[in-house]
Amino acid sequence: MLKAMNKVAVAGPVGMLDTIYVPAQGEASGVAVICHPNPLQGGTHTNKVVQTAAKALSQLGYACYCPNLRGVGDSDGEHDYGNGEVDDAVAVAEYARSQHPGLPLALAGFSFGGFVAARARARIEADKLLLMGVAVGKYPIPTPDVPADALVIHGEEDEVIPLAAVMDWARPQSLPVLVLPGAGHFFHGRLVQLAQMIQRCW
Question: Which residues contact 32 (CB under 8 A, 6 or more apart)?
Fold first, then answer.
């Protein structure tokens, strides 16, 4: 868990987006926007996988922004099933860039948030993409292809998004997928390993 949560309100397309800001440890070398899982199942920016990624990336020198997407927590608007949320992610990325001009941008997300991040990456240039338990095949709009250097991490025993579905998505792209043996969708008991994988492969 993140010990202290600095909050910023970022102007989004339908109002303010309640966003956790995790400063880089040491001098900032990049900025990251990390999107949360499906809010209809309780996903928010305080999700433990989101927080684990933010901590791991902050230790690598990334200033991290973890927004509550539209309709979640104190953010304005209504849930839009992964459509308007892409606009929100883009808005937060633009804000992050304005606060840290000239630094590389990373987009990241867990589950539904990975779906949002992948779609946002199709809209804006980003230097890195991190997808954890990405929600492939769950929504009417397909998850887009992603750059070959995207870091895709999935649990072998994912009970929400089967590993086979992710492999079917990755195969035509020749996209490597890092598999955490025995891990489920929420990486219960495996968050330390998840953080290590992020840092080792970044």
Answer: 53, 54, 57, 62, 63, 64, 65, 96, 105, 106, 107, 108, 128, 130
Q: Report the CATH fold assignment for 6-201.
A: Rossmann fold (3.40.50)
Tell me the pTM.
0.97
Burial 110-140 (b: 16+ CB within 10 A, else e): bbbbbbbbbbbbeeeebebbbbbbbbbeebe
Structure tokens at 123: 């809209």
Let me know: does 9 contact 17? Beta carbons within 8 Å: yes
Extract the tokens encoding 6.
């600095």
DSSP string, 184-197: -TT-TT-HHHHHHH
The radius of gyration of the chain's CA atoms, rounded to the nearest angstrom, is 15
- Helix or strand run (H / E) with residue 94: helix 84-99
Q: What is the pLDDT of residues 32-83, one digit of tens each?
A: 999 999 999 999 999 999 999 999 999 999 999 999 999 999 999 999 999 9
The domain segmentation of the chain, as residue ranges, is: 6-201
